[in-house]
Write a structure and sequence with these properties.
mainly alpha; two-stranded antiparallel sheet; 17 helices; 2 strands; disordered N terminus
């Protein structure tokens, strides 16, 4: 029996922690390098500004933080900032399209890398399906306003008393077609939609800033920093930070565009940090203004921004905001869908998933097979399955990825101190350590049920790893 076959059939404990070589991966796998630093920044903004600003701002204010939701966004933004700097350093020094997965492979070994890949698949896949459900509601409301609303049975899945959530199902397929056509064309569409939703936010601020009543900011922190309500669920500024963290999900998608960036070692860090800083400022300003024009107790609604404008008598502005929400949620789904396909391609190249998923189409220079398969799965999830509490898994999955990325920076600083780092975060190991502590704390503030579901998801991933991945890994057969 050859050595290769022996490894394939008899994996050892040491195989669980075999690592990729630590060197910048600029391999050419057939994708076009067409994305500039501006394209990457707009991809980040497209992924970040959506559900968080148009929905979660009001929900978090009403149920978690009160007007102090501004501080919740600051806390969550700081945690993301530490992670973003860690992503930027690893993106410039390690590269690869697998994002946190690839960095963990180099820093901690194969098992941890697979766990984080499985985690990211959950994060992006459930996020797209969840946002598609929200998009469907706004889209059908717009159709109803012009007399073309869909029957209820075509806006809900069978578990919710309908047949299929047709708009949610359809938008995923539309995004699939866009991603198949090409990444540069996708970036152009994203840039146009980002311009629309930023214009929507500007309209809201221009109208609302003259209708602020400071008394609405009192009491500023009615739930304190952290406590439990009568039902035992965590509330307060820190609990609110764990909730609004969902608003930042997606900025790390920029790191999955390494193979399609013109100058990835320079442009990817710029896109990561630039998009996060811009969006954090927008969140803080909008949440402060929103709680200033309407009392926080009234904001637990599906579209708090549009609701607040209606409340102060600006129905025309409310209608424009509703249109901006549809556009904003579209860009969120587009970027997260894009990131999911690139992560799966990276995992497949390493042999942890079948090679079928890493094939790049010669004409479009995109992974058409993977785009179609994951698109169909997400469309079914969005159209037929009520996601509900599954969306909570997105936050814990993302935070877990951020913790490992920050830890990866520390690990590689010790194990490979001479590794070329075109972008090296300042402050030595202080920032990645703060990233681990802050993201870990936000995980602790999430409900117990979320932790339990996350453990079940990881258990399923471990079964797949030990049944298939450990025996077919590229490192196993090399």
């Amino acid at each position: 029996m050859t050595k290769d076959v022996q490894i394939m059939r008899d994996p050892r404990m040491a195989d669980l922690f075999r690592k990729k070589s630590v060197a910048y991966d600029d391999s050419d796998f057939g994708m076009k390098r067409v994305l500039s630093a501006l394209d990457l920044t707009l991809l980040g903004i497209g992924a970040i500004i959506g559900t968080g600003i148009f929905v979660l701002t009001g929900v978090a204010a009403a149920t978690q933080s009160g007007p102090a939701v501004v501080l919740s966004f600051v806390v969550a933004g700081l945690a993301c900032g530490f992670a973003a700097l860690s992503y930027a350093e690893l993106a410039s020094s390690v590269g690869g399209c697998g994002s946190a997965y690839g960095y963990s492979y180099a820093a901690f070994g194969e098992l941890i890398a697979w766990i984080i890949a499985w985690d990211l698949i959950l994060e992006y896949g459930v996020s797209v399906a969840a946002v598609a459900n929200g998009w469907s509601g706004y889209f059908n409301n717009a159709l109803t306003a012009i007399g073309l609303g869909l029957p209820p049975e075509f806006t809900k899945g069978p578990f919710a008393g309908g047949i299929v959530n047709l708009p949610a199902f359809g938008i995923v397929f539309l995004l699939m077609i866009m991603l198949i056509i090409g990444v540069k064309e996708t970036a152009r569409v994203n840039a146009a939609m980002v311009a629309v939703k930023l214009g929507t936010i500007a309209i809201f601020l221009a109208v609302a800033i003259f209708n602020i009543h400071p008394e609405n900011w009192t009491p500023f922190a009615p739930f304190g920093w952290f406590e439990h309500n009568a039902e035992g669920r965590p509330v307060g500024i820190l609990a609110g930070a764990s909730l609004v963290f969902f608003a930042y999900v997606g900025f790390d998608a920029v790191s999955t565009a390494v193979e399609e960036a013109r100058d990835p070692q320079r442009d990817v860090p710029r896109g990561l940090i630039g998009s996060l800083i811009f969006c954090t400022i927008i969140y803080i300003v909008v949440s402060g203004v929103l709680t200033g024009i309407v009392n926080y107790t009234e904001l637990n609604v599906s579209s708090p921004v549009a609701f607040a404008l209606q409340k102060i008598g600006y129905n025309w502005a409310s209608a424009l905001v509703a249109a901006g929400v549809i556009t904003g949620l579209t860009t969120v789904m587009l970027v997260l869908y894009y990131a999911l396909t690139r992560i799966i391609v990276g995992v497949s190249r390493d042999g942890l998933l079948p090679p079928y998923f890493s094939v790049v189409n010669r004409r479009t220079h995109t992974p058409v097979r993977t785009t179609v398969i994951v698109g169909f799965v997400m469309a079914v999830m969005a159209g037929f399955i009520p996601l509900g509490v599954l969306a909570e898994l997105v936050n814990i999955g993302t935070l877990a990825a951020f913790v490992l990325v920050c830890a990866g920076v520390i690990s590689l600083r010790f194990s490979h101190p001479d590794l070329p780092r075109p972008f090296k975060m300042p402050g030595g190991l202080i920032i990645p350590t703060l990233g681990i502590l802050s993201c870990g704390a936000l995980i602790a503030f999430l409900p117990f049920e979320t932790h339990l579901r996350f453990i079940v998801w990881l258990a399923v991933g471990l079964v797949i790893y030990f049944v298939y991945s450990i025996r077919h890994s590229r490192l196993a057969v090399a």
